[in-house]
């Protein structure tokens, strides 16, 4: 396993999402006429932010809140043991923001979770908040479940599933079109 790349870099999306999403079935218009399959750049979701002001989120008890003025750009689902144990789910979905663009009402409590990452959580309710990867300190991975669901966050589709070699054996991963890696980039 190579630790030379962050989870954002391995999917080729260190700054802006560029993955192509293709609909193989095409679309039906209002006259029920089948059209050709559609290929859209994943970045097209950003065009819906004509009146975008900020993304916000919080922990479960709302003691910790955050905002960022930049729309999220990359969603990565991590299946490593640490992410599964922290989330209590088959994987942890992380969304990437520039680290210096997040404003916190209260700083989350940080702890060193491995030799490659530092995580944070709310000291009151225990909600997982962030992950900071040593290899890419310019980015912050925010737990997707902490985003306020106001319909304006523009969460992109998953770009990649990583650490599938540690995936829970009982979990069947559906084909969502995302890249798949056994580790960081293999």
From TrEMBL:
User: Which InterPro entries does the entry link to?
Assistant: CENP-V/GFA, Mss4-like_sf
Which segments constitute the CENP-V/GFA domain?
Answer: 55-172
Q: Name one Pfam family in it.
A: GFA
Task: List UniProt keywords, sorted A-Z.
Answer: Lyase, Metal-binding, Zinc
Q: Which domain of life is it from?
A: Eukaryota
Q: Name one GO molecular function term.
A: carbon-sulfur lyase activity
Sequence similarity: Belongs to the Gfa family.
Q: What is this protein called?
A: CENP-V/GFA domain-containing protein
| Natural source organism | Penicillium cinerascens
């Amino acid at each position: 396993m190579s630790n030379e790349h962050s989870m954002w870099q391995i999917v080729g999306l260190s700054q802006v999402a560029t993955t192509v999403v293709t609909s193989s079935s095409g679309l039906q218009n209002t006259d029920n006429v089948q059209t050709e399959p559609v290929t859209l750049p994943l970045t097209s979701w950003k065009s819906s932010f004509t009146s975008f002001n900020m993304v916000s989120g919080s922990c479960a008890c709302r003691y910790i809140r955050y905002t960022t003025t930049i729309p999220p750009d990359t969603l990565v689902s991590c299946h490593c043991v640490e992410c599964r144990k922290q989330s209590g789910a088959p994987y942890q979905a992380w969304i990437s923001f520039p680290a210096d663009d997040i404003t916190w009402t209260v700083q989350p409590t940080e702890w060193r979770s491995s030799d490659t990452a530092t995580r944070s959580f709310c000291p009151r309710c225990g909600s997982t908040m962030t992950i900071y990867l040593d290899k890419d300190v310019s980015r912050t991975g925010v737990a997707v479940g902490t985003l306020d669901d106001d319909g304006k966050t523009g969460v992109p589709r998953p770009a990649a599933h990583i650490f599938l070699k540690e995936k829970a054996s009982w979990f069947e991963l559906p084909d969502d079109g995302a890249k798949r890696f056994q580790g960081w980039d293999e």
